[in-house]
């Protein structure tokens, strides 16, 4: 049985200002806790996994390859995104496929909910740039997406506005913070940085390419069925599009030639005009994952570890923060997520 701290007046120190730590800090600060968020990098966050994320808020689409807990946490997170950042785009998402992937497309439709099928005319009405490109599509109208490099600073601003403190270039451990103040409640959101205490964590590389063109206009992410992994085109501001994302069981950095060809090929398959786009950036991030690819909130004394968000960080981080807060304040336990470590 987990034992709650039940100390709502305790100072709360959170390590890691990526998407997991940022949501923890925001909800705890809004609840009246004295919050300090520590980040070993600078305010640009270019070394964080979140910097290389797609930012898709797609719990229904993820049901095709993920456990039900991801959909549950993701659906709850959508409500929190809407509540805390009401300007978050919820334009839905599209899933398309070419004829050779028709069987996989139908399988995707059977394994997911929350969508409706669009014929070619309806697809063209929704996304004029895709007119004549696909004979049909799956439309998930309640899903959304964010641009990680823009939304993280917004979350950081909200934390400060709620009374929290953010310390960049602050490379600390839970032991460091406990030594400074034994009453300190520490929430460890370091991702792969926490392998000094959680050696079972592994990094799963997600590669992305950023391109620029004004010849294609999209209002929502387009996911192209692929035999190995989901490939998607995500619109961003200023005529930019993110192409992502691979899931490679490797911990090196950079983008391989094979992955680049597949990502660029996916964009071209969505629309030939992407062939004339300008490549702005290649990059990759290492997503922290446990062997089962499921998230955990682990409790050990005065330290709570939130980790293993895998490829669902932006989708499930708000709900995980809500669960952590409920545990600290009310002793509420989610048995699917929480455990002693």
From TrEMBL:
Keyword Oxidoreductase: yes
Lineage of the species this protein comes from: Bacteria, Pseudomonadati, Pseudomonadota, Alphaproteobacteria, Hyphomicrobiales
Superkingdom classification of source: Bacteria
InterPro entries linked to this entry: DAO, FAD-dep_OxRdtase, FAD/NAD-bd_sf
Domain FAD dependent oxidoreductase: 12-324
Residue stretches in coiled coil: none
Key words, A-Z: FAD, Flavoprotein, Oxidoreductase
A molecular function (GO) term: D-amino-acid oxidase activity
Reactions that this protein is recorded to catalyse: a D-alpha-amino acid + O2 + H2O = a 2-oxocarboxylate + H2O2 + NH4(+)
Protein name according to UniProt: D-amino-acid oxidase
Enzyme Commission number, as recorded: 1.4.3.3
Example of a GO biological process term: D-amino acid metabolic process
Family assignment from sequence similarity: Belongs to the DAMOX/DASOX family.
Organism: Bradyrhizobium sp. LLZ17
Pfam families noted in UniProt: DAO (PF01266)
Cofactor needs: FAD
């Amino acid at each position: 049985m987990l034992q709650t701290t039940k100390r709502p007046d305790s100072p709360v120190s959170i390590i890691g200002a990526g998407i997991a730590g940022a949501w923890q800090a925001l909800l705890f600060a809004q609840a009246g806790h004295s919050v300090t968020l520590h980040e070993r990098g600078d305010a640009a966050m270019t070394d964080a996994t979140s910097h290389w994320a797609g930012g898709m808020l797609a719990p229904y689409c993820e049901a095709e390859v993920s456990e039900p807990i991801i959909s549950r946490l993701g659906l709850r997170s959508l409500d929190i995104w809407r509540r805390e950042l009401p300007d978050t785009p919820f334009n839905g998402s599209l899933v398309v496929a070419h004829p050779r992937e028709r069987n996989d497309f139908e399988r995707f439709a059977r394994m997911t909910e929350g969508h409706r099928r669009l014929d070619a005319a309806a697809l063209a009405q929704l996304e004029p740039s895709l007119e004549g490109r696909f004979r049909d599509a799956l439309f998930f109208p309640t899903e959304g997406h964010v641009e990680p490099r823009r939304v993280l600073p917004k979350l950081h601003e909200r934390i400060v506005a709620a009374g929290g403190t953010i310390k960049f270039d602050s490379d600390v451990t839970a032991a460091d913070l406990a030594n400074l103040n034994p009453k300190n409640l520490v929430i460890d959101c370091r991702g792969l940085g926490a392998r000094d205490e959680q050696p079972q964590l592994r990094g799963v590389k997600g590669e992305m390419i950023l391109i620029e063109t004004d010849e294609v206009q999209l209002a929502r992410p387009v996911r192209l069925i692929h035999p190995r992994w989901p490939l998607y085109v995500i619109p961003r501001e200023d005529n930019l599009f993110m192409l992502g994302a691979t899931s490679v069981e490797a911990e090196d950095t950079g983008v391989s030639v094979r992955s680049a060809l597949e990502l660029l090929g996916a964009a071209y398959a969505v629309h030939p005009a992407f062939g004339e786009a300008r490549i702005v950036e290649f990059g990759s991030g290492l997503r922290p994952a446990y062997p089962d690819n499921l998230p955990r909130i682990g409790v050990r004394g005065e330290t709570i570890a939130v980790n293993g968000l895998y490829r669902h960080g932006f989708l499930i981080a708000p709900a995980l923060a809500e669960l952590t807060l409920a545990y600290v304040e009310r002793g509420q336990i989610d048995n699917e997520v929480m455990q002693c470590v």
